[in-house]
Input
Amino acid sequence: MNDTIALSEDQRDALQELMNISMGQAANSLAHLIETKIGISIPKITAVTPDGLYELVSHHQQAYYTRQSFMGDIHGEVMSILTQHGLTEVAELLEYEQPLSENDINETILELSNILAGACLAGLSEQLELATNLQMPTLFAPQKSDFSQYDWQHSLVMEVKFDIQISSFTMRVVFCLDDASLTRLKSTIDELLG
Amino acid sequence: MNNPLLDKLPVGICLVNEAYEIVYLNAFFLDRMPVELRGDALGKPLADVFPEQIKFLKRRIKSVFVLKHPSFSYWEQRPHIFPFKSSRPITGEETQMVQNMEIVPHKDTETGEQYACILIQDVTAQASYFKAQAQLAEELKAEHEAQRKLIRKLDRAQSQLIQAEKMASTGQLAAGIAHEINNPMGFVTANLNTLEQYAQNLLETCQATKKLVASHAPEHIEALEDLFDATHVELIEEDMGPLIQESKDGLKRVSEIVSTLRSFAEEPQHTWGYLNLHDTANQLVQLISTQFKRPRFKVTCEPDQLKWYCESASLKQALTNLMMNAAQSIDENGLVMLDIKQTSSGGVAIKIVDTGCGISEANLKRVFEPFFTTRPEGKGQGLGLSVAYSAIEKHKGKLAINSREGKGTVIEVRLPVLKEQEEEKSASNPSTESL
Output
């Protein structure tokens, strides 16, 4: 593993805790908005290569993908993987009328990604006192992208899974940070750890 | 909020408070609103000004107030959120503005009040460019597909040409061989006739000698008879006639085959004229039966000696291919029938019936495809039927095939009457249909 990526155990624990809190806030916000219960998994923090990232995001056959970049003090991209199953129920919670058109489905996917990714990022930034700015999400097809062409070797990935309990819908949010942001993140965590 | 700079921005700004009332509109936003809404929009509930969009807007604004982070809407999913006119009323193709929307939370630092700030971006130009690109891609795809079809057709035409070329050179080869065989055949036949005469003379000499000895030197007759016995003269006498007759028959057959081959192969290519279908059928059967011994062949033609205006080379080729297939389909005993009949409409119906192995339903759909064959590799090119098909098309005819696996196959060729002018027409536009 690349040295710039390696987090010490303390750093990793701290980051995991921070993620946990911000994810919890995100889940709460969404639950509040759509008035339903939402479960979250314990965040996983790993370092990946482009191939590893591809493995991570593309092993779901029946899934929708979005990506969204964020800028500010830290810089990176959020990828969301949404199961196709259960999306109709979630769209209904978001007050879309049945039957869903293709545009409705795409809008639901983008909206959900934006809400969850946005909430996660907002929570994390707030706790780390970093300013971030989320850009517009877009639909993404990992199958059509060539991950091996990416010009980075390692990336820190924070992954969390949300379950919306009234349907079997799940969604995973994967945060990827570039090297410079990682250095910034580590120093910020170190400050917090004192 | 009333910063004049905001009126210079190329982005529409609409500020909404927590009661969903409009509290600010910048110039970009105002200028694009329908005239009747402009005057008194400020301070009004959003629902009154934009009643059609309110459901969607409220949902998004609510999410911004609750989550405190931006909400986005992309033109591809929702192109016209606000009823704004296109920025190009004169030269633009779109009449309505295509919009990207972003709603961001805004907190007044002095009062602490929460606002949702709706930002509208005019992406009409990008969207129409994008749509044009997408349409272009569609067109390219369609063109690509059309070209692929054309290439397939060209491939087919090419393979047929190759086949025709091959047949032509095979024909030339056959004619050459026939000529070469004819020469030795000439002297072998002549010599055999002479030999027959000589042998006859020798036998007669033997008989005469026997008579002479019997009458003039009877004491030697026994010795002579012993000599004749030792050289089997009696047997030779008996056997000679049939042996020579058999050889003559053989030679006759060889010369018949050679002349059929010549008359069949030496036909100049692509000439239209009258062809005796009856003779052709007989010649064809004669040729094929030398190659395929198992099936019985039967030719019928009505009326007798029917002559037909056609391009003889290609029609013969077609019939050859069809007959070869029929003959090849028979493993053991079987019958191949070639039936030619003039129809009441003046056209001709040629039926080729065999009692061979037949064609399965799945294969039947594909028999006219070039290179489709069920024979093992190297045994057939799978071009026979497609060549026959295009030859018959050239004669504006129809080819129908009917088959039952294990029972046999019936192929029916129907040719309409072609007069000389029509032939010119079809020749000037030769087989574009089949291409």
User: Anything to note?
Assistant: The radius of gyration of chain B is 46 Å. Chain B touches chain A through 18 residues (CB under 8 Å). Chain B is about 50% helix and 20% strand.
